[in-house]
Specification:
The complex is a heterodimer of chains A (287) and B (239). With 287 residues, chain A is mainly alpha-helical. Chain A has one domain: ABC transporter involved in vitamin B12 uptake, BtuC. Chain A has a two-stranded antiparallel sheet. The radius of gyration of chain A is 19 Å and the shape is globular. Chain B has a single domain, classed as Rossmann fold. Chain B is 32% helix and 25% strand. In chain B, the strands form two sheets. In chain B, strands 6-7-8-3-9-10 form a six-stranded mixed β-sheet, with helices on both faces. A four-stranded antiparallel β-sheet of chain B has the order 2-1-4-5, with helices on one face. Chain B is globular and about 50 Å long. The chains are: A mainly alpha (287), B alpha/beta (239).
Chain lengths: 287, 239
């Protein structure tokens, strides 16, 4: 076994998990909303990309570029008209509503696309690779990881350098006082979920081109997203990337030892981190 | 014609009634103090005017328009800014970010800019990169006042800005009020310190149990008169 290669593949796989998790982290950080339909929304975006690629004959990347504003609008409307009504002191209503939404999306996709396993072809990119010193890295896994880094850099710039980002953080601190500043928390929340859906679309592009997916694939993606967020520590986007990378390395190392262990070792790594660092590696959120 | 007034304002928290028909009026450029004991309804009055609490539309009138039912962002857009009780700074934001967020909903031209506010409270410039909650109580109050001024309001509501602060700090904060008055803004201050209120205000309203019990020019009100309106009883000297 080539350890260097295994670890590199794990790091790059971690980029995919970080992309799954970044949107979840953003939404939780700003409105303390745990979206149980997050994985299903990733799969929904993958099917939207698939539909665009097959009907318009465009490349997957162009498909994702068209899907991103559509998903932004869907996320904005979902938050503004549905999820905002569930927010309050009680954590239960948003959990129940997003759990229901998860079932609705899975069954809707089942009706529309059947239960067949699908994949979006990325053409010659799928098998292309470049040499990084002694090991080879696939172009797609490398693009996934770089996209995750780019997404996190952009989100951090937005949150820490712009007026909208200040409004995000102020609303997260205290929505009532934010109102006195002219901030409308309902719209800030809708904007945050819209942005999360753009990140979801980027994650879906790589999900759809790198692996098979079907209407019921969502909950498994949600688990990886949750694990990456919690390993990294709530509220820290770079922590989320580290969390994704830890999961990815654990999975590829596990698979290298015994292919049956891939999923198991990922979850074991998550449990180990929880055992020693119950609040994750880089906790930022206070509660 | 008053710039802003309340007309028979009633306010409720669920079944509990906190205000029973409050009438106050503030002219352009005027400073008005509202005094009263704990639970008199002063903060409820501020929360109602600023839109944190919703009321009957006609119960609050600004520039001849009913604004009682408007939510806080719409009230701010009309040029009415509030310094909330307990300061309520945003812990995730630095001092400067707290100030900048004050101009989020209303970017009105006016004399208040970051530079002017740093000139008014120089210590804030030194601490501008610090997390807001790392400052002392008095400095935090300066941030809260500056944050409200960033929207260049025509009406500034100040709720209990001296609460919990040492007298010297309170004097330092009130020393900024002549500059704020000079900007042309009307100021409404809620204050438990009667002496401070009488010093800074043109007119005073005294509240008790959700009603206005006394009003008049600050220079013309007598101590005994205020004491009676404040506590609702004849003055009983302690032996």
């Amino acid at each position: 076994m080539n350890w260097l290669d295994t670890i590199l593949q794990g790091v790059l796989l971690g980029g995919l998990y970080a992309l799954f998790a970044a949107g979840l982290s953003l939404v939780f950080g700003i409105m303390r909303l745990v979206n149980l339909a997050h994985g299903d929304l990733i799969v929904l975006a993958a099917f939207v990309i698939l539909a665009l690629v097959t009907t318009l004959g465009v490349s997957p990347i162009v498909g994702a570029l068209i899907a991103a504003p559509l998903m932004f609008a869907a996320g904005w409307a979902l938050q503004y008209f549905v999820l905002n009504r569930t927010l309050g002191k009680d954590m239960l209503p948003p959990l129940l509503v997003t759990f229901g939404l998860s079932i609705v999306i899975q069954n809707g996709l089942l009706e529309g696309f059947s239960a067949d396993s699908r994949r979006v072809s990325a053409g010659s990119l799928e098998s292309a690779s470049i040499a990084l010193g002694p090991v080879n890295a696939g172009i797609m896994p490398l693009m996934t990881f770089l996209s995750a880094v780019a997404v996190i850099v952009c989100l951090n710039q937005l949150i820490y350098r712009t007026a909208v980002g200040r409004a995000f953080r102020a609303t997260s601190d205290d929505p009532a006082t934010a109102g006195l500043m002219g901030i409308r928390p309902q719209r800030i929340f809708a904007l945050a979920t819209g942005l999360a859906m753009v990140v979801v679309t980027i994650a879906a592009l790589y999900l759809a081109t790198r692996a098979n997916f079907e209407p019921t694939s969502g909950p498994a993606r949600l688990i990886y997203a949750f694990e990456a967020v919690i390993v990294g520590g709530l509220g820290s986007l770079w922590g989320t990337l580290v969390g994704g990378v830890i999961l990815g390395i654990a999975q590829t190392v596990g698979a290298a030892i015994n292919p049956e262990w891939q999923i198991l070792t990922g979850h074991l790594a998550f449990l180990l981190v929880l055992l020693f660092k119950p609040r994750g590696l880089f906790p930022r959120a206070v509660d | 014609m008053a710039l802003i007034e309340t007309k028979g304002l009633k306010a409720f928290y669920g079944d509990f009634q906190a205000l029973f028909g409050v009438d106050i009026a503030v002219d352009a450029g005027e400073t008005v103090a509202i005094i009263g004991a704990n639970g008199a309804g002063k903060t409820t009055l501020m929360r109602s005017i600023s839109g944190v609490l919703a009321n009957e539309p006609g119960a609050i009138v600004h520039n001849n328009a009913p604004i009682g039912a408007l939510p806080a962002p719409d009230v701010l857009a009309r040029g009415i800014a509030m310094v909330p009780e307990g300061r309520k700074l945003f812990p995730s934001l630095t001092v400067e970010e707290n100030l900048l967020v004050g101009a989020y909903g209303r970017k009105a031209q006016g004399q208040w800019t970051l530079e002017r506010l740093y000139a008014l409270f120089p210590v804030l410039k030194e601490r501008r990169k610090s997390p807001a909650m790392a400052l002392s109580g008095g400095q935090q109050q300066m941030v809260a006042i500056s944050r409200a001024l960033m929207s260049n309001p025509s009406v500034l509501l100040c709720d209990e800005i001296s609460l919990g602060l040492a007298p010297a700090i309170v004097r330092a904060i009130y020393a900024a009020f002549p500059s704020i008055r000079a900007s042309g803004a009307s100021i409404v201050i809620v204050e438990q310190d009667i002496g401070q209120a009488l010093k800074v205000a043109d007119r005073v309203y005294c509240m008790m149990e959700g009603r206005i019990t006394l009003s008049g020019r600050a220079s013309e009100l007598g101590r005994d008169e205020i004491h009676k309106a404040y506590f609702g009883a004849e003055r009983h000297e302690l032996a």
